[in-house]
């Protein structure tokens, strides 16, 4: 039996870590975004993972964000392909703008892609079929819809598979899922959006124990972050709440956690600030663009 070397191992790469609006956000005049408008090195793309299998040449995106052009370019730098977009598939978590709006770039005004497989849950598929401009992408053959089902493993190729897990969220147009990603060596969960941990079964701690790394919703750091806006209307597990909840876990479990999907108001966007330091002291991590985990 042949031996797979490290450079042939499938892997994931973090292509974005910001909430749907990106960082900096449109129209924001607060210090958080003023800094990023002034210094391009501080800017971050919307939350997204890439999966790459060097052996087969397969490339997949988990979510298709408004930053699709830059994220596809980053994928091309890691794993060049002869034809564009060179995607074996796109897997969608839900129908909030940061997670599917990049599909527009598959259309005739941009890539004019042919038959890119887009994996989606039932309500998400119906939403794309029945609403323009997404329906036009299907009718024009730019993408083909592929079915996902809750907790049913979906093989991507002989070495990689994903399993969608339905989670509670603001499901105006579609379900919301996280993905368990399984490779030959490691298993990872990608869960950028959920309302609150206590509203979901199984317990998040049990999910963390079943994987090697956990990319979890870190949209906001704490209540009150949005000034006068009622944050209960946009429920997420605050990072401060997660730190408290996970404090009872052993260090080997806490270090698996990598928060992602940061709103522009979240103080962890400053990696040298007090909020980021609290995350590190708690034994967790903040996802970083370009980081790679072998699968």
Q: What would you say this structure looks like, in words?
A:
This protein has 9 helices and 14 strands. With 295 residues, it is α/β, with parallel strands linked by helices. The longest helix is centred in the first third of the chain and has 11 residues, at 68-78.
Q: What is the count of DSSP helices, taking H or I runs of 4+ residues?
A: 9
Structural class: alpha/beta
What assembly state would you assign to the polypeptide chains in this entry?
single chain
Spatial separation of the terminal alpha carbons: 19 Å
Q: How much helix is in the residues?
A: 10-25%
- Catalogue the unreliable spans: none
Short structural summary:
With 295 residues, this protein is of the alpha/beta class. The protein is 22% helix and 21% strand.
List the helices and strands and how they pair.
Layout (H helix, E strand, L loop, with lengths): L10 E6 L14 H8 L9 E6 L4 E5 L5 H11 L10 E3 L5 H4 L15 E5 L1 H9 L3 H6 L3 E5 L6 E2 L5 E6 L10 E6 L4 E5 L12 H6 L3 E5 L21 H8 L4 H4 L2 E4 L13 H8 L3 E2 L5 E3 L1
Parallel strand pairs: 3-4, 4-5, 5-6, 10-11, 11-12, 12-13
Antiparallel strand pairs: 1-2, 1-14, 2-3, 7-8, 8-9, 9-10
Give structural attributes.
295 residues; alpha/beta; seven-stranded mixed β-sheet; 14 strands; globular
């Amino acid at each position: 039996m042949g031996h797979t070397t490290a450079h042939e191992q499938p892997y994931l790469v973090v292509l974005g870590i910001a909430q749907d609006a990106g960082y900096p956000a449109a129209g924001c005049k607060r210090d958080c975004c003023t800094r990023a408008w002034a210094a391009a090195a501080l800017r971050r793309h919307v939350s997204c993972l890439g999966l790459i299998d060097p052996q087969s040449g397969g490339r997949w995106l988990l979510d298709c964000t408004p930053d699709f052009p830059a994220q596809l370019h980053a994928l091309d730098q890691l794993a060049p392909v002869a034809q564009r977009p060179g995607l074996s598939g796109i897997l969608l978590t839900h129908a909030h703008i940061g997670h599917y709006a990049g599909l527009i770039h598959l259309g005739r005004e941009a890539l004019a892609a042919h038959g890119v497989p887009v994996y989606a849950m039932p309500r998400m598929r119906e939403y794309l079929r029945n609403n323009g401009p997404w329906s036009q992408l299907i009718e024009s053959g730019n993408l083909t819809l592929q079915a996902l089902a809750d907790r049913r493993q979906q093989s991507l190729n002989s070495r990689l598979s994903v399993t969608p897990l339905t989670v509670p969220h603001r499901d105006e147009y579609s379900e919301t899922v996280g993905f368990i990603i399984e490779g030959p060596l490691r298993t990872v969960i990608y869960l950028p959006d959920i309302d609150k941990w206590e509203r979901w079964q199984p317990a998040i701690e049990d999910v963390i124990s079943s994987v090697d790394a956990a990319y979890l919703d870190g949209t906001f750091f704490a209540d009150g972050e949005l000034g006068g806006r009622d944050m209960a209307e946009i429920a997420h597990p605050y990072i401060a709440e997660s730190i408290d909840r996970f404090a009872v876990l052993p260090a080997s479990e806490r270090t698996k956690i990598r928060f992602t999907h940061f709103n522009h108001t979240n103080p962890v966007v400053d990696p040298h600030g007090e909020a980021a330091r609290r995350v590190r002291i708690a034994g967790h991590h903040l996802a970083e663009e370009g980081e790679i985990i072998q699968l």
